[in-house]
Amino acid sequence: MNTKIPRQEDKDISIEDKLRALHELQSVVSEVDKIKTLRGELPLEVQDLEDEIAGLRTRLVNLEDEIKTLETAINNKKIAIKDSQALIAKYTEQQNNVRNNREFDSLSKEIEFQTLEIELSEKRIKEFTAEMEEKKETIDSSKTLLKEREEDLDRKKNELDEITQETRIEEEKLKSKAEKIESFIEPRLVTAFKRIRKNARNGLAVVTIQRDACGGCFNKIPPQRQLDIASRKKIIVCEYCGRILVDKDINVVEVE
Fold it and tell me: Which residue from 88, 103, 230, 236 could staple onto 98, CB 3.0 to 4.6 Å apart?
């Protein structure tokens, strides 16, 4: 027979009732945990895909900006080549009208310098073009990867939405029930329960005695300690793991 939690207006709530409430609270939040487990790693996978997609989009923008910079650099080098070619033509023409060898040699050096400038510019154009082609290939592969990741994200989101939709009502009911149970437990116990649960494996803050051992860490509980727990006269925690201990025969209660 289930024992009901005293109403909030009741003045005195016994230790036994508090233990029953804590045990029931654990049962309810464990059901919420099961729902979250059903979703598995999907929320994390969705977040990871969103982060990766954002990174790919940023990478594409940066690559496209770099290509524009390279195109500008190539155009500048082409202009420089034309300028050098014009100067070579000018200096060659001037060589036909020189008055001495010194002027001829000086113009020859200028022609040689501009020729080297053209060769250097052509070399840079080849380097910039090769770099630009490499970046275009990277853009193509990044776009392909982006499309794949966007498809993966859509699929994962649909899976998560389906599971969330199926469990949302049940989860909301359980959370509402947990809040109602918490309202009958003094705040310090609720705080302790949540702290233990946060640090405990599988989120278990309240466990029963199983085969003379703690149901959380499985360390043996002395017989006298078990009798104290079964008496339900005080709240007892496991000296090894800190979980709240209750006897296996404690009733599961329902809140009115």
Answer: 103
Amino acid at 11: K
E strand map for the chain: 206-210, 213-214, 236-237, 244-246
d(CA 189, CA 19): 10
In one letter, which amino acid is 248? K
Give yes or no for residue 255 having a pLDDT over 50. Answer: no
- Look up residue 239 and give its two tokens: 């000296």
33-65: b or e for each residue (b if 16 or more CB lie within 10 Å)? eebeeeeeebeebbeebeeebeebeeeeeeeee
Task: Please name every residue paired with 246 in a beta bridge, in sequence order, or none if there are none.
Answer: 208
The residue among 28, 5, 7 whose CA lies nearest residue 174 is 28
pLDDT of residue 12: 66
How far is 103 from 119, CA to CA, in rounded Å? 24
Per DSSP, the three-state class of 194 is helix
pLDDT per residue over 84-118, tens digit each? 999 999 999 999 988 899 999 999 999 999 999 99
How many angstroms separate the CA atoms of 28 and 232, rounded?
Answer: 21
Mean pLDDT of the chain, nearest integer: 90
With both helix axes pointing from N to C terminus, report the angle between 101-182 and 15-39 in degrees, rounded to the nearest 10. Answer: 140
